[in-house]
Amino acid sequence: MNNSIPYGRQNITEEDIEAVVSTLKSDYLTQGPKIANFEEAFANYVGSKYAVAISNGTAALHLCAMALNVQQGDKVITTPITFAASANCVRYCGGEVVFADIDPKTYLLDIDKVKELLKASPKGTYKGIIPVDFAGRAVDLEAFRKLANEYGLWIIEDSCHAPGGYFMDSDSNKQHCGNGNFADLAIFSFHPVKHIACGEGGMITTNDEELYEKLLQLRTHGITKNEDQYKNSIEFAIGSPVMSSGVETSDGSRIPNPESHDYPNWYMEMQDLGYNYRLTDFQAALGISQLKRADKGLAKRREIAATYLEAFQGKEFIKGQSRVVEGHAYHLYVLEVDNRLGLYNYLRENNIYAQIHYIPCHLMPYYRNFGWKEEDMPNAEKYYQHCISLPMYPTLTNEEQIFVIKKVNQFYDK
């Protein structure tokens, strides 16, 4: 087989291309109607009340931390087995990242390790938790919510790997990732290797109206055009030299005289220090088109995972592998193996470009600066020594998957 097989790949159809071209020919390339269309469609897909489209998943995490008012020195708990952005968003706001180890069976943040951290310090020491639906496996957020409530913590669910994923709650109901029933905020990524591709892009979902309104401001420089939120008087807005009408508030701003006319259309107010974290309309158009076949892609991922599980179950060189569990969204399919470097190089020699997810965050040089060291997270570190992610994407053919399986077996049979 001459064609290369990556670990992940986008699937762009003619319908996707037509959706983007149509938007490129429209009146809006950004800040237009496709944004709201995508937000509504995505909120419906995951079952949340609100969705806010963002320029990428990292920006989404940053805005979540800002919206939850992460401050200098605030301690937030997350997993070391994730992309660095899950932790970095806390640092952007001056907070302190505290890692807790993973469950070696699920690869997810271990709730028992989190409990140990919380019990070891006075209540109020920690502000929040950022669990990650790693590889597409949904975190049991019902259990984390109960723990968070006990200690007065917020939760940001990092669902970049898991649109369409879910866990079963204590009443045997499906709880979809990002539905807002347990996490204060959830985030998703639309990077090309993810389930839904926009080139770049992200989404924040929530059921909290106050957080939703705050996010809308923060993604656009902290600016609002909502008259109900304005603090300056109408007289100021229209440029009138007479600034005395209206009622002065304690912060020096003015409540407009209700008999005065409306604010002019040009008027806006920057009320917070925000960012330009907007998604474009043509990216949103691509996202809407991709979302239409998200369930089909999810079904194919689960089929591929089942084939891998059957192929490698019981092999002596396997130290662990992704399980086939209900609700898993399978962004990744992970094996834990002996001689991981040898297998990685052998697969590349055969044009199979497997990947490693992830180098433990606490051992990145940046986080070592804060005192994290080897043996702090033994489960995460042992996992990293053996993990390798095999090709996993909906357009992976049966022939290609059989070739991948064959080459893995051949390497260990040598």
Could you name the key traits of this structure?
seven-stranded mixed beta sheet, 14 helices, Aspartate Aminotransferase, domain 2, 18 strands, 15% strand, alpha/beta, Aspartate Aminotransferase, domain 1, globular, 414 residues
Structure description:
With 414 residues, the protein is of the alpha/beta class. The chain has helices at residues 14-24, 33-46, 57-67, 85-92, 111-119, 141-151, 209-218, 234-238, 281-291, 294-312, 340-349, 365-368, 378-386, 398-413; strands at residues 5-6, 50-54, 75-78, 96-99, 126-130, 154-158, 166-168, 174-176, 185-189, 202-206, 223-224, 247-248, 254-255, 269-270, 318-321, 333-337, 352-353, 387-390. It has a seven-stranded mixed beta sheet with strand order 2-10-9-6-5-3-4, with helices on both faces. The chain has a three-stranded antiparallel beta sheet with strand order 15-16-18. Strand 7 (166-168) and strand 8 (174-176) form a beta hairpin. The two termini are 20 Å apart. The mean pLDDT is 95.
What is the strand and helix layout of this fold?
Elements: E1 5-6, H1 14-24, H2 33-46, E2 50-54, H3 57-67, E3 75-78, H4 85-92, E4 96-99, H5 111-119, E5 126-130, H6 141-151, E6 154-158, E7 166-168, E8 174-176, E9 185-189, E10 202-206, H7 209-218, E11 223-224, H8 234-238, E12 247-248, E13 254-255, E14 269-270, H9 281-291, H10 294-312, E15 318-321, E16 333-337, H11 340-349, E17 352-353, H12 365-368, H13 378-386, E18 387-390, H14 398-413
Parallel strand pairs: 1-17, 3-4, 3-5, 5-6, 6-9
Antiparallel strand pairs: 2-10, 7-8, 9-10, 11-14, 12-13, 15-16, 16-18
Helix pairs in contact: 1-9, 2-9, 3-4, 3-7, 11-14
